[in-house]
Amino acid sequence: MVVGDAHRVFLPDLGRDRAGAARFRGLRLVLSNLAPGGLSEDDLTDLVLLRLDAVIAIRVGSDGLPETVHWAHLLPPDAGDVWRVESRPSVHGWTEDWNTFITDLEGQFSASARLQKVEGRQAAILVGITLGDPRRARRSLAELERLADTAGLVVLDAALQRRRKLDGRTCIGKGKLQELLVRSMHLGVEVLVFDRELSPSQLRNIATLTDLKVLDRTQLILDIFAQHASSREGRLQVELAQLRYRMPRLALMPTAMSRLTGGIGGRGPGETRLEINRRRAQERLTRLERQLAKLGKNRATRRKRRQKANLPIVSIVGYTNAGKSTLLNRLTNSEVLAENKLFATLDPTTRRLRFPEEREIIITDTVGFIEDLPQTLVAAFESTLEELREADLLLHVLDASSPHHADHASAVFAVLERLGLENTPVMTIWNKADRVEPEALQMLLAAEGGHAVSALTGEGCADLLGTIEQALFRADLQRAVAQ
Ligand SMILES: Nc1nc2c(ncn2[C@@H]2O[C@H](COP(=O)(O)OP(=O)(O)OP(=O)(O)O)[C@@H](O)[C@H]2O)c(=O)[nH]1
Ligand SMILES: [Mg+2]
Hints:
Elements (H helix, E strand, L loop, with lengths): L27 E6 L7 H9 L4 E7 L5 E9 L8 E6 L9 H19 L6 E8 L3 H18 L2 E9 L11 H14 L3 E4 L5 H11 L2 E4 H12 L3 H19 L6 H4 L17 H32 L3 E6 L5 H9 L16 E6 L5 E6 L9 H6 L1 H5 L6 E7 L5 H14 L7 E6 L6 H11 L2 E2 L8 H22 L1
Helix pairs in contact: 3-6, 6-7, 7-9
Bound molecules: guanosine-5'-triphosphate and magnesium ion.
The site of guanosine-5'-triphosphate has 24 residues, from helix 10.
């Protein structure tokens, strides 16, 4: 029982009982309505956001006696509408069996949710919000789907909202949020994934309003990194990035942390304890930074040794999934893990490559780049990426078969610039040539320059080696002449 005034009632926190994806709360909200008219906008919002069985407003006349009744309940997926509002002239003579009615309705919700269910994987809806170019937003959303899939989610729907400005509290508007919640009930979805980084308070507000697990693009990428990190340094780096992401959010999520942690978005490499409190988090952060600084020193020592050996260094860079590891394998006859997954490679791999005439070079493969690579990750991976500074030549691998290669290239150049590598020579490699029509490939090469190869079939790779050798040792020759 809650008492409000003629304008509004504040409902208490209803707890999280029964908050299964396709279930109602098991609560009906019965209001005495002093104002004329039926259900208000707020009443319908409560119906959706609180997943109430029904909202029932009984109009109270000036004599204090009950008059007309309006009530609303949610509708199953194929109904075409989100809710139905009904009314009758009086509370008396009401014979419907509410329990049967709600059980039936819930049955229809969970039947449609079950249809979509994939065993052992959490279902998600993707949410894109764009202020500008909807094409870019759609492409980014498609990429988010691949990220979600790599992280182990099943994507059942995606929504893109175009707005003039972001809603400070929840990023998207309240109406859209309601729509998403009903959709998630219809589909049995437990996770919303936002295609941008949410501020700590936005994250909290959306999670509190919807009772769904809320992830953003950054968390998803961090999660994939956490799953793929295998070296000690890589694991520490990911943990550092995760902690830096979570620290400002921990303060705002004292009780709701359970929704932030656990499952996807909450997996950490190694021994990360995600339920740690803020003080412990700060201690852990300091320790991680110290450990990483030490490992960074070792790395620098190794690098010096390599420099002493005076071997030229070639680093392979490029967008994630462009085929960098496959190319390294092809060029050096080795077997670095290459997979049709985003961020399959996290730890840099170094191989020696011997040309005829006893010329030797070092060739390294690194973590792939992506648009909007989270700042916390770039910072945490600094020592790994620092290796790129030693490179005499960068091989920029592009997926020639991707319709988005131009955008991928700009994302890669943006990261290279951020790392201060704009002066290192770059050789453009158009990979996956086997998947492109020869004429299209010719046009691409004529317009953009570079070398076409297929790391998979080996086509063009021998030529590429020759070009690399020339580029490196001709430079050597020039240096010798200059001295
Ligand atoms: N058709 C075709 N597929 C290729 C080629 N090169 C790589 N692939 C495939 O593309 C996918 C990604 O290859 P990887 O070598 O793992 O790509 P990567 O750039 O190292 O990716 P990350 O480490 O995840 O950033 C794999 O499924 C490869 O088999 C190619 O030349 N042709
Ligand atoms: Mg790789």
